[in-house]
Design a protein that fits this description.
- The complex is a heterodimer of chains A (329) and B (575).
- Chain A is an alpha/beta fold.
- Chain A has eleven helices and twelve strands.
- In chain A, helix 2 crosses helix 9, helix 3 crosses helix 4 and helix 5 crosses helix 6.
- The longest helix of chain A has 19 residues.
- Chain A is elongated.
- The N and C termini of chain A lie far apart (87 Å).
- In chain A, 51% of the residues are buried.
- Chain B has 575 residues and is of the alpha+beta class.
- In chain B, the strands form four sheets. In chain B, strands 2-1-5-4-3 form a five-stranded antiparallel sheet.
- In chain B, helix 1 packs antiparallel against helix 7 and helix 11 runs parallel beside helix 12.
- The chains are: A alpha/beta (329), B alpha+beta (575).
- At the A-B interface, helix 5, helix 9 and helix 11 of A face helix 3, helix 4 and helix 5 of B.
């Protein structure tokens, strides 16, 4: 009988020693609608390493729908079932899916927005200063910057007067951006036409109905489908349309220019939220941030294909200029 | 009943513990407190150095905010306002591109209205002119719609033709100052003149609109914006109303002191354990002989003079035990001598008492033998002399028999089985028996008893013997008329009987020997000296107490108390 307390003490000491030697590594589950957003995850990893959450201290599990929006809700459930310390949404549709999944939880895990547009308008947060609930993170201001994109398009191409706006009527930030852009167009004395499209086929079909010369330029508004703008490059070329896009589309493939914050920077800025929440902060008390330094990228290769020369005024703000051999930036 | 603290060993142990804890606690508290103060001073010195470095760098950086504007103003001069609008726009966009923390740049005319304005977010084309402050050197901190803090800096163009005004985001400014982010455990905040947080490595705190409350002048430890208790200092940023606050959390800063405290505490615990162990050892060494002495004294008190306390040690306790054992031996010898003396006294008393009748018997026998030889038995018988001699001889024999019977009574005291006895009843019965003698002597004999008294633990015969002896002694002590009073009353559950007479009383010397067997003040032949000692033996044998108070000429009062009859106690006694 006297040995029982000693055995219990030894067992407790052994368990304590084991628990010290095998610290539990927290898990962060990242939900992506497409692998195109993996650049945000790269930025997140780099940012977290700066806060002491390298691969040895934190496991990041990526759940990507690989472009198939229909599986997003199931993936959100799977991400939640992996018992993460917190969830990270790669964009707006991912954030909505995660919000819906965690709504049924008694104590839902925090959700970090890794660059999401129109966070207040979509109801993800109550306000930027006081988000409330279990969601906080980075609002990438894509909708708010749409007006500036239109202005910069006129700075690059001063002679344009008719601009085509491509938007997704099923995506709230896209509608938000449409409002902002329409207002800016009035201020800039531009005429705009719209092409609503919620799928690649609709984009293709819509562009096919247009005639060359019908518009002087086009502007991509934030939207899930429009992030794949590169695949519509042949149609844009056929219509002789210089296109301005969002920078987190990486501005590659057929766009003349893009303005915004890179996916890498969005991921990196979101890392601080993840670190703070891992340290026990409450998401409701962390204000939603906006990016500081949107940058302009211009692809002179596209300009050459279209046979146009961007104005020096617009080029003056370009932080990145993509050129082919022999081009003058 | 002895409480746990009534034990000497507990007191010794407590003394050891208190005397180990008190000084250790005091010196520990003093030492840790001194180390804590020293650590606060060290941390404050480090904080001060860090705050100064950051403040100087920040001040320099704020000063340098003007540099790109000054370069532009210097390059174009007043001609900047005369450039084509598109060219002015291009120039300002280049400035915006090359200085990442600028949010907006504007060129104003002499009247401070914007001629050209470019922004990173806002659509400025067609927005109309904006009126600026006249070339502010450095504006106060303003918040944009997203809650981000901004400042405005301005540079005048030559000839006051206009000015270049730029809005910079403070997050961008602080992002360019590595030291603002702090290093290690150091945390650096920047606050404006009103105390509002405008710069922090955690920008969420800035957006949340936190305000820094400056601590008191001698208050190095206070609650930070983060909610933690910190040790911190603040220093002004040159050229601004801002302050740089450098803080280290108390938890982190005091880790070495805490470690010292734990180490000291651990050492103190070991030391205390040692002192307590020594206290136990010395306490037991002190108290064990004392406990043995106590037990020995108790045994001697019960009459066991053969008790021997184990000896040991040469200290005072050892010598005390040796002296105690010696005392016990001497007491045993004295008790033996006393017994022998008592036996001798008893024998002398018996011899003395029996010697007188025997002497009378011897004299009468010798005289009768002489007269029988001289006068003949017939003549002596005829004259009744023979009958008279024989009667006297019988009287003396009866006197001897009475002495031996009293001796037997004395020897038998307390041997009978006790029973519930009504004291008042026995007293009245005995008074009735002795009433004629008292009346003849002119002595009033009264018995007063409190009603409903409990029966006492006694035997009726023994109690009657006591009353008989006491009344008889009282009658013998009264010369002429007098009074004997017997009062019986309850006393704390027992029954107290007081026999008071108005006799001659006893002096102190007589009173001391009153209970001694065969001690008597009565004339020879009237008392055996066994009455009172028999009474005392009976009363104490029944578990009672007896007291005598007397003074010459003031009579004598003899009180005895007997315990009440208790069935269970007596049953167990019987069994």
């Amino acid at each position: 009988m006297r040995r029982i307390p000693i055995l219990l003490l030894l067992t407790f000491s052994l368990l304590t020693a084991c628990s010290r030697s095998l610290p539990v590594k927290p898990v962060v589950a990242v939900l992506l609608s497409d692998d195109v957003r993996l650049a945000k995850v790269d930025g997140l990893r780099a940012g977290l390493a700066g806060f002491g959450y390298g691969p040895e201290a934190l496991e990041i599990r990526v759940f990507s729908a690989k472009g198939d929006r229909t599986v997003l809700n199931d993936l959100a459930e799977k991400a939640l079932a992996s018992h993460p310390a917190l969830l990270v949404a790669g964009g707006g549709v991912e954030a909505l899916a995660l919000k819906e999944s965690t709504a049924r939880q008694k104590t839902p895990p925090p959700i970090v927005l890794m660059g999401v547009a129109s966070t207040v308008r979509t109801g993800l947060v109550a306000s930027l200063m006081h988000p409330g609930g279990n969601i906080t993170g980075l609002d990438n201001q894509h909708a708010e910057l749409s007006g500036k994109r239109l202005e910069l398009l006129t700075k690059l191409l001063p002679g344009i007067s008719r601009v085509l706006l491509l938007y997704d009527p099923l995506v709230e930030p896209s509608l938000h951006a449409l409002e902002v852009t329409t207002g800016a167009a009035t201020q800039l004395n531009l005429r705009v036409g719209t092409l609503p499209a919620s799928s690649r086929d609709e984009v293709t079909a819509g562009l096919a109905r247009l005639q060359p010369g019908q518009y002087d330029a086009a502007l991509l508004l934030p939207g899930y489908v429009l992030e794949e703008g590169a695949q519509f490059a042949p149609q844009f070329l056929r219509l002789h349309l210089p296109v301005m896009g969002l920078l987190d589309m990486e501005g590659k493939g057929g766009l003349l220019a893009a303005y915004g914050v890179t996916s890498q920077d969005q991921g990196m800025q979101s890392a601080r939220f993840v670190a703070k929440l891992l340290q026990g902060a409450k998401p409701a008390a962390i204000p939603v941030e906006t990016p500081d330094n949107p940058t302009l990228m211009v692809d002179l290769r596209v300009a050459r294909q279209l046979g146009i020369t961007p104005s020096p005024v617009g080029m003056a703000l370009a932080n990145t200029v993509l050129t082919a051999a022999g081009d003058q930036p | 009943m002895k409480t746990w603290f009534g034990h000497l060993k507990i007191k010794v142990l407590s003394f050891g513990i208190v005397m180990s804890i008190l000084p250790l606690s005091f010196f520990g508290w003093y030492g840790v407190n001194a180390a804590r103060q020293a650590q606060v001073e060290i941390v404050q010195t480090q904080n001060q150095a860090a705050a100064r470095t950051v403040a100087e760098e920040l001040g320099q950086f704020i000063n340098n905010l003007h540099t790109p504007l000054q370069l532009l103003a210097g390059t174009y001069g007043a001609g900047l306002t005369r450039l084509e609008p598109s060219e002015r726009e291009r120039v300002l966009y280049i400035l915006l591109r090359d200085v990442p923390y600028l949010e907006e740049v504007a060129l104003t005319d002499a009247g401070t209205h914007s001629l050209t304005r470019v922004s990173r977010r806002e659509v400025t084309t067609g927005a109309g002119p904006i009126n600026y402050d006249p070339a502010p050197d450095l504006s106060s901190v303003k918040l944009d719609v997203d809650g981000r803090p901004l400042i405005e800096v301005g540079v005048s163009l030559p000839d006051k033709a206009g000015a270049l005004v730029a809005r910079a985001t403070l997050r961008g400014v602080f992002a360019n100052i590595a030291t603002v982010r702090g290093s290690g455990e150091l945390r650096v905040h920047v606050v404006d003149g009103s105390g509002r947080l405008i710069g922090d490595s955690d920008f969420s705190l800035v957006l949340a609109g936190n305000t820094w409350q400056p601590p008191g002048p001698d208050q190095p430890i206070y609650q930070s914006i983060t909610g933690d208790q910190v040790i911190g200092v603040s220093t002004p940023v040159p050229g601004t109303s801002w302050r740089v606050v450098a803080e280290v959390s108390v938890t982190t800063a005091m880790a070495p002191v805490r470690r010292l405290g734990w180490e000291f505490g651990g050492g103190a615990l070991v030391l205390m354990a040692g002192i307590i162990a020594l206290s136990v050892v010395f306490g037991l060494q002190l108290t064990t002989p004392l406990e043995r002495l106590e037990a020995g004294a108790r045994r001697i008190g019960t009459g066991d003079f053969s008790t021997k306390v184990p000896e040991g040690g040469r200290d005072e306790l050892g010598r005390l035990i040796t002296a105690f054992n010696g005392m016990a031996e001497r007491l045993a010898v004295a008790r033996q001598a006393e017994k022998l003396a008592a036996v001798g006294q008893l024998a002398a008393g018996i011899a003395h008492e029996i010697n007188n009748p025997l002497a009378v018997i011897s004299a009468y026998g010798e005289d009768l033998a002489d007269r029988l030889g001289e006068e003949g038995a017939a003549k002596l018988n005829q004259e009744g002399v023979l009958t008279c001699y024989l009667a006297e001889l019988q009287h003396q024999v009866l006197r001897c028999k009475a002495i031996t019977r009293n001796l037997l009574d004395f020897a038998r005291q307390g041997s009978a089985n006790p029973e519930p006895v009504d004291v008042a009843d026995v007293a009245r019965q005995t008074a009735a028996l002795t009433g004629p003698r008292a009346r003849r002597a002119g002595v009033a004999l009264q018995v007063e008893a409190q009603p409903d008294l409990p029966p006492v633990r006694a035997t009726r015969d023994q109690l009657q013997q006591v009353f008989l002896n006491l009344i008889s002694n009282a009658l013998d002590a009264i010369e002429g008329q007098g009074e004997i009073r017997i009062d019986i009353a309850g006393a704390d559950g027992s029954v107290r009987t007081t026999v008071t007479d108005t006799g001659s009383g006893m002096d102190k010397a007589t009173l001391v020997r009153a209970l001694e067997p065969f001690f008597t003040t009565k004339p020879v032949g009237r008392g055996t000296g066994l009455g009172l000692s028999t009474c005392y033996g009976i009363i104490t044998g029944l578990g009672g107490k007896m007291e005598i108070t007397s003074a010459p000429g003031q009579g004598t009062t003899i009180s005895f108390t007997l315990p009440p009859w208790e069935e269970s106690a007596c049953a167990s006694t019987h069994s």
